[in-house]
Design goal:
With about 325 residues, the chain is of the alpha/beta class. The protein is built from 10 helices and 13 strands. α5 links the parallel β5 and β6.
């Protein structure tokens, strides 16, 4: 019997890459949810996509009753940190209620799928130098509404394991980058601006935010493998940090892309690209997950940066 895997938010950046990874590495049948019919254009081939607003309990119940999945990857949500300051309640409602409805629907259906709930390194918030590298025991000091919503999702997953024995495995991925990411995020923002300049679509000036920030960047394709391993081998109730274990500066990312462009480009600071609160350095300790599964990233940071740049060259061809 072929297992059904359900990816909520399958039309999104991570959802699409995860669907491709599942198809390449397992024999699971991939189903997914999309928020709006217009999202169907972004669903990768071979995926059965169903429209549903998981903020509505009836929609969540209908999805679970129809798909009856053996594995669930819950990715749907509001994922852009700056948006959470502009609309805190919208972020809370989307992220918390959607997961609550999903877990309630699974419980009501009497199913026991392995469920991967996806939080974020943002739950650690204000990280001190003494906290580095960040392991799963690092204190949670959320510094954005988005981070608070992700803590709620994380602990909700734990509660449903302890209270109802739903086999929930929690992950806290650090910064994911790669082709097809929305231009609101730092890596595709750099790449798009560079390619627009190469194409003569804008003056040769880059608009930049905080260039000194250091983050633990991992290619989304490597992270997708981690999610699959988590579903297969993760221990229910446990939480795992996912990342490369290295800090890379945003400056280094940009320099790699600029070195691959033939155009002379100047730089200009854009105050709108700064966050109200930011952490200077973030670095993951992925040892717990590596011990459990043997996973580690395969794609070099430099290759990921070039893949993002070339992705935008194709988009703007």
């Amino acid at each position: 019997m072929i297992l059904r895997a359900l990816i909520t938010g399958v039309a999104g950046f991570v959802g699409g890459h995860l669907a491709e990874a599942i198809q390449a590495e397992t024999d699971w049948q991939v189903w997914g949810t999309i928020l709006d019919e217009t999202d169907r254009a972004y669903v990768v081939a071979g995926v059965t996509a169903l429209q549903a607003d998981l903020r509505e309990m009836a929609a969540a119940q209908q999805i679970i009753d129809q798909v009856r999945p053996a594995v669930i990857f819950h990715l749907a949500g509001q994922a852009y940190v700056p948006q959470s300051w502009r609309d805190p309640w919208g972020t809370y409602e989307t992220n918390i209620r959607s997961q609550l409805n999903l877990l309630e629907a699974v419980s009501a259906a009497g199913l026991k799928p392995r469920i991967v709930t996806v939080a974020s390194n943002e739950v650690y918030g204000y990280v001190r130098e003494a906290d580095l590298p960040i392991d799963e025991e690092t204190p949670l000091r959320p510094n954005s509404p988005y981070a608070v919503s992700k803590i709620a999702q994380d602990f909700m997953g734990l509660q449903y394991w302890l209270d109802r024995q739903l086999p929930v495995i929690r992950v806290r991925p650090f910064n994911q980058i790669g082709p097809r990411q929305n231009e609101r995020f730092v890596a595709p923002s750099f790449a798009k601006q560079i390619v627009e300049i190469e194409r003569g679509l804008k003056p040769p000036v880059l608009k930049l935010g905080n260039m000194s920030a250091q983050r633990d960047f991992t290619d989304v394709r490597d992270m997708s493998r981690a999610y699959i391993l988590c579903a297969q081998h993760g221990e229910p109730g446990e939480v795992y940090n996912l990342g490369s274990g290295q800090s890379r500066s945003v400056r280094e990312m940009l320099d790699i892309m600029l070195a691959a462009s033939p155009i002379k480009i100047t730089e200009e600071t854009d105050p709108d690209k700064f966050r109200p609160s930011d952490v200077p350095v973030s670095r993951c300790d992925p040892a717990k997950f590596k011990r459990r599964t043997g996973w580690e990233p395969r794609i070099p940071f430099e290759q990921t940066c070039l893949d993002i740049l070339n992705d935008w060259r194709q988009r703007l061809a």
